[in-house]
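Morning!

As promised:
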Amino acid sequence: GNSVTQMEGPVTLSEEAFLTINCTYTATGYPSLFWYVQYPGEGLQLLLKATKADDKGSNKGFEATYRKETTSFHLEKGSVQVSDSAVYFCALSTGNQFYFGTGTSLTVIP
Amino acid sequence: GAVVSQHPSRVICKSGTSVKIECRSLDFQATTMFWYRQFPKQSLMLMATSNEGSKATYEQGVEKDKFLINHASLTLSTLTVTSAHPEDSSFYICSARELATFMNTEAFFGQGTRLTVV
C-alpha cells in the first residue's frame, strides 16, 4: 500500500540553525511528493513538490529531493527563521489519493 | 496557485444543532474534493472523498449520516455536521484538485473551520 513516514517532533531550533525533517514513503506506481506547511489556526499551504525521481523542489529557502533509491523526500533549510515555526507535512499523491505523514512541529527560537 | 475558500472559519453551535461548512474552488474546477478532520497536534484524518454529481465515499469509521457531504457543482462542496455534539468539536479542512490536470498534482487547501460544540 501507500504510506508516508515522517520524523516525529516536536523540533526546536535556534534561529539560523540547519533544519532537516526526514520523510520516507512507500508507494506503488510513480507518486508525486509534496511538503505542506500549516501555520497555527490555518489550513495547509503547499511548500514545494517534486513529480519524478531526482527532481528537487525548492521554495522560500526550503529544499527537498525526490530520491527513488532510498524512497525519501527529506526537507532541508540552511538557516531557519522564527517565522518558519509551523507544522510541516510530507505527502505523496498517486492516482486520486493523497497520503499524509503525521506532521512535524517546528519551533524556532530567537 | 489555485485558491480554495472555506467558510466559515470559526463556528460555535449548541449541542444538537447542525452546522454547514462550505468549500469553494475559486478559480478552477474541482471534480474531486476531500474533507479532513484534524485533532489538536495531530495529522489530517481523511473523512471522505467528494465527487461532483455523485455520492461521497466515506472512510472507514466515519458516519455518513452524521457528516453529510454534497458536491453539487464543480466549484462547491459542503459538509454538514448533523446533530452536533461536543465530541464533534474539531478543525475541519477541505481540499480540491484541478479537473484538467488531476493526476499526481498538488491539492489546494481551504483555510479550515474551527467547530466548537457547546
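Chain A has a mean pLDDT of 93.

Hope this helps with the figure draft.
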